[in-house]
Specification:
Blueprint lengths: L5 H19 L3 H5 L2 E9 L2 E5 L2 H18 L1 E14 L2 E12 L4 E14 L2 E11 L1
Parallel strand pairs: 1-6
Antiparallel strand pairs: 1-2, 3-4, 4-5, 5-6
Amino acid sequence: MSMKTDKDTTEIRELFAAYASAFDDFDADAIADLFAYPVVIWQFDRGNMFEDDEDLMENIDALLKVLENEGVVQSDYEVGALSVSGPTALASVSWSQKRADGDVALAFTCHYHLVNIEDEWLIASIFNENV
């Protein structure tokens, strides 16, 4: 049974706002700070586990390089399905990353498993689904 509260919903939306902002700022440390470790990320039909932020940093740096090469300056997102049960949540988020002229460089959906640790929502796993 879902026990979502307005506080949870607000905090989870703030997590994704911070995540988008960190990507727009090309701030790898801020991105890494939004994860619970170890974290599992599924992308391109392959799962990878990262033990800590240092372990994840190579992946983040590679992703930021792709965004830079694509000319991405703005990450827009829409939280779709959101289910909260106690200290865990599942969220589906559609992303649109745009260039300075407004053209969409990348569009995709990710499914997130979130965990609340010490009253802070963090990303525990991501499944990246290309659209």
